[in-house]
Amino acid sequence: MAIIGNIIKGFIEARDSLSLEKNPVEEQKKVLENLLNQAKDTLFGKHFDFKQILSSKDKSKTFAQNVPYYDYNKISTEWWNKVIDGKPDVTWPGNPDFFALSSGTTGKKSKRIPVTQDMLASIKNAGIKQIYALSNFDLPAEFFEKEIMMLGSSTDLQERNGRKEGEISGISASNIPFWFKKYYKPGDEIAQIDEWDHRVLKIAKEAKNWDIGALSGIPSWMELMLKKVIEYHNLEHIHEIWPNLQVYTSGGVAFDPYEKSFNALLGKPIQIIDTYLASEGFLAFQDRPDTSAMKLITDNGVYFEFVPFNPEYINQDGSLTDDAPSLTLDEVKEEEDYVLLISTVSGAWRYIIGDTIKFTDVKRAEIKITGRTKFFLNTVGSQLSVNKLNDAVKHLEDKLDIKIPEYTLCAKRYDDGFYHTWYLGSDSMVDSDKTAKVLDDYLKSANKNYKVARGKALEGVKVHFVPQPIFAEWSGANKKKGGQVKMERVMGEEKFAEWEDFVAQQTA
């Protein structure tokens, strides 16, 4: 009998049953007021007169009128570079102890995003909320005694000017509470290994000694780790070595493109739980089993705003036009795409995180990530967001009975016009012309703007199949393997030329 597991499960269920019904709109009003109060004496707070905003009748509206939108480049140039140089009380009281390094899905140069002690407390609090929500998933008591594999970036943080730097998953793992360490795998020693392939090989060697009940990490890297364990031990599937694996907490990107290839590595179905942990904060998690949407964490030091995702509001670099309207949580509508803005206890203000989302349930504040502002394919009027591209790939998987966990594309100019040129990462090699026709037909039937574009400047679709590992090697060559690194779904022509050269070298 799982005595400890029953105790833990009982506590979680009792704690959850005592939770009062929350009002996300009211919680957000309190979060904004607290953020303004805490930062009113910072350089940023004085510059934008937070005290005056706090005295206004409609704080949300006055805040939106007084403070401009910030993407990373703008807030770094005007404010965060001072923080990096060590100046205190710039956008948040004091000095941050950590900086999250993030190259995201674009660019080789790492961004440095402040991570304050208040943010670490926020992330920890969000994690506890997620644990309490497990009571909704009807997991057996034995599950709560099993170990958790957290596959993030290295916890061997680098020192720079007295502060520590690393990816947010590494920072979070290096600050896990002592009581959690008995459940945490791969453990401190392996987690500190910086080189991805070396770390994964060590995990594979030790895998037989662990009783893993849950996995946590970005799908693309989790798949590669599971494949390495299966290959190293000559297994049919991962449940042969981890028979008690029951939960996978996904995050960072939409899980849908990976669903078919991920499930192929399992011996039995497991519960998939989506999370939204970005370098800028822990923003949302799935808190019930009868949806794949995630609930925004509306009472935890992050204030959300939403800009309608219309092409006229989006600049070529993914930033917002000055006249783009912003909405609060009580103004949004379901099934419409929005650019997500956050203001946080790390001193991000009206910050364009780069993701687009849609609400599936406004009352519950439940969302799905639909794409990236920079990955909106509209070169020739086709208006395809990442969720529409993911839907098209899922259609290919079903229609052709193949697995395509990775892909990228570009609206590339040829002598006879533009073509959407796709590279599909798959172990199955199907006729490219047939695949292109299936893809083109689906996009024309599912997206009216694409169909219109096909009658004008867009000549058609070209498809190339490449082995899936090439995508990981590309990330390793351009950024770094593992951790928070994600593949670009849409590239500009210049970056795409580099990609095609890279593929040619890898397949020569």
TrEMBL record:
UniProt cross-references to InterPro entries, sorted A to Z: GH3, GH3_C, GH3_M
Protein name per the record: GH3 auxin-responsive promoter family protein
Domain of life per record: Bacteria
Short name of any one Pfam family annotated for the protein: GH3
Residue span(s) of domain GH3 middle: 297-364
Domain GH3 C-terminal: 389-494
